[in-house]
């Protein structure tokens, strides 16, 4: 099975939890896009009715419109029934790294407003400790004096051998700009982060920081698709 087939299997399994009448948080990324497509298909077939979607990015907003999912927002629906979204890393406690697609702020706002949050991944996303794979830990920051904020972020985690890099567009080297007009600084760690809540508080205390990509204690259900099949883990 290809990685995309595994992502589709996990996404379709999550959509089995969607009931007519639900207000849904619609995730962003290559895994969540399969769930959005499936929801649209079931609506079209009349197998699902009265669904309202709250998208977690402009990209998902466009996709949901194209597959016919009626859309709304958190102002009109401050509490959602269920969110389905992917993740970049999942640890054994269902803590996540998200944001390598750049949508972490709206994802965290929407998923934080949901009664249930189902994370859908292929097995390659499972890790023992967040941030230990040497992959990016995204932090959304304001563009004003971004270098100053990046250096302060790097300084916070000197003990973990942290390097902070402004995310740029490959072609032009211009800074990547989020749906909210902000920049992303990616943090790379050489050793373990330690207590994730302590790390989270340290990051959020910096005045130029908007939000980070650690989703701690937010997911309620994990659906993992692997070579041996798909498994569902409730928190
Ligand atoms: O960037 C994001 O937050 C995405 O949801 C990411 O966490 C998962 O993206 P993927 O399903 O394309 O791997």
Automatic annotation (TrEMBL):
<keyword id="KW-0413">Isomerase</keyword>
<dbReference type="InterPro" id="IPR050262">
    <property type="entry name" value="Ribose-5P_isomerase"/>
</dbReference>
<comment type="pathway">
    <text>Carbohydrate degradation; pentose phosphate pathway; D-ribose 5-phosphate from D-ribulose 5-phosphate (non-oxidative stage): step 1/1.</text>
</comment>
<dbReference type="Pfam" id="PF06026">
    <property type="entry name" value="Rib_5-P_isom_A"/>
</dbReference>
<comment type="similarity">
    <text>Belongs to the ribose 5-phosphate isomerase family.</text>
</comment>
<dbReference type="InterPro" id="IPR037171">
    <property type="entry name" value="NagB/RpiA_transferase-like"/>
</dbReference>
<protein>
    <recommendedName>
        <fullName>ribose-5-phosphate isomerase</fullName>
        <ecNumber>5.3.1.6</ecNumber>
    </recommendedName>
</protein>
<dbReference type="GO" id="GO:0004751">
    <property type="term" value="F:ribose-5-phosphate isomerase activity"/>
</dbReference>
<dbReference type="GO" id="GO:0009052">
    <property type="term" value="P:pentose-phosphate shunt, non-oxidative branch"/>
</dbReference>
<dbReference type="InterPro" id="IPR004788">
    <property type="entry name" value="Ribose5P_isomerase_type_A"/>
</dbReference>
<dbReference type="InterPro" id="IPR020672">
    <property type="entry name" value="Ribose5P_isomerase_typA_subgr"/>
</dbReference>
